[in-house]
Amino acid sequence: MKLLREAVPAEEVIEKVMSGDPLKQHRQMVVVDVTGRTAVFTGSEMSPYCGSEQGENFAVAGCGLPSEDIVKLCASAFQNAQGELAQRLVDALATGAAKCDDHAACESAVVRISRDELYPYLDLRVDRHENPVAELARLLDIFHRRAAQKNKDPQG
């Protein structure tokens, strides 16, 4: 995040973060930098199917998926989704999760949005859950309700 705040290009962020990592070939990393440039790294030792789609100001990646169609569906869902960024991200994840028959392949889901501040604007994570995307959507709904309540009552 420090590199992104310093406006380091997406590709360079991946190079710097991954350099010296002995497990680099077992990882996947997606970066969208402050200018909207994207970069994706998928290690050669990742499980079958791993891949990514990149577009203007977004990138989608997945590993251990039943097919490359999942990543393409997520990318399309993100591009066609309406509303704020977090909701669009969750909608894209939900589209992909709906196409995965094996729920063991999808046991975690994350949405993290950072702006210029030191701490993320939104950081939701669900691990080892039977339906992590639905749980992530539930948490996002709670976040929105609390934000709306706070805006109504600035003292609260």
What is the topological layout?
Layout: H1 2-5, H2 10-18, E1 28-32, E2 38-42, E3 51-55, E4 58-62, H3 69-80, H4 85-98, E5 109-113, E6 122-126, H5 132-152
Antiparallel strand pairs: 1-2, 3-4, 5-6
Helix pairs in contact: 3-4, 4-5
Q: What report would you give on this structure?
A:
This protein folds into 2 domains: 1-64, no CATH class; 85-156, no CATH class. It is of the alpha+beta class and 156 residues long. The longest helix is centred in the C-terminal third of the chain and has 21 residues, at 132-152. It has a two-stranded antiparallel ribbon. The chain has a two-stranded antiparallel ribbon with strand order 3-4. Strands 5-6 form a two-stranded antiparallel ribbon. It has helices spanning 2-5, 10-18, 69-80, 85-98, 132-152, and strands at residues 28-32, 38-42, 51-55, 58-62, 109-113, 122-126.
